[in-house]
Amino acid sequence: MKEPKTPALIEHLEQISDPRIERTKRHKLIDVLVIAVCATICGAEAWTEMEEFGEAKEEWFRTFLELPNGIPSHDTLRRVFMLVKPGEFQRSFLSWVKELAAVVKAELINIDGKHLRGSRSGQDKRNGKEGLRMVSAWASEQRLVLGQVKTQEKSNEITAIPQLLEMLDVTGCIVTIDAMGCQKEIAAQIKSQEADYMLSLKGNQGTLHKDVTDYFQWAEKIKFKDIEHSFTESIEKDHGRIEQRRCWTTEDVEWLVQKEAWAGLKSIVMVESRREVIGQAASVERRYFISSLAADATEALRCVRGHWAIENSLHWVLDVSFREDDCRIRAENATENMAILRHIVLNLLKQEKSCKRGIKTKRLKAGWDENYLLKVLQI
Question: Is 3 exposed, middle or buried (0-12, 13-18, 19+ CB in 10 A)?
């Protein structure tokens, strides 16, 4: 059976309206956007680098772009990304990802925020502003960014997460969120969208974290005698490091005073991570969660480990491979638009399966091999 073709990104970028006045339109908007995407795939990080890339690949670009006035300058690239409305760029991204998700169905969706440190200017620091923070949804098993929302000034992830959820079709999925998003309203929204949740607990929900911690400590003392529960453990050994993970989960939650306030709450979870490195003292960490899932320790541990993937497979890659925190693009809409652009490029590279290498090597290969770049872009 022939695999379905990944949808062409260009068709969705063409949905974005051109914000420029007529007399300044020397270059087609789609040409500018596609050059920026291709340049970023191949490692460009600044407007001047995008211009240089375009000029080096002009003959190749002319095989599928019109380029009525050649390659746009770095000033044109900068101006376009300043003027394009992030909301439109976002909708174009979402329509593309919606088709991608139809090809590769997401099951485990992780939601987490990331601060773009380079977006904070000296004046922002003096005024106590944090700079741009994006909350992203990541399909960990499909390695796909599903969407992103900018947090509002003087706000945080609590207000952005509901907006992000509204954009997504999470029906039948499991949504994992860290302690910042462990909110009754968010749990209720996830259930109303016909999904399940695994929410991390900390001290931001009254006594809930302490109650769950105390319960598991008591259950351990009596060795879970007469308590219906599920347990699993895994051990990984690699390069002098041993990691043991143990997970307990139970549906014995009727005693929780706050149970009725959490829509669909069905189980509580404890995950213990023990890490040993040769020559170092062992470290042990315990985390606690509430969930609308039935008590299945194997499934719970899969969800928890899947959430950790958003740090390693998304945030870490953006920082290390794309040098996102070093990016000093701060002009008007350009910062947010560039964050969306990097997510587009990351999706393209993650979904290209023929090259069995890491992101860095794939970007180099795309710069060297125009046939491979075309395959990544999927015209």
Answer: exposed
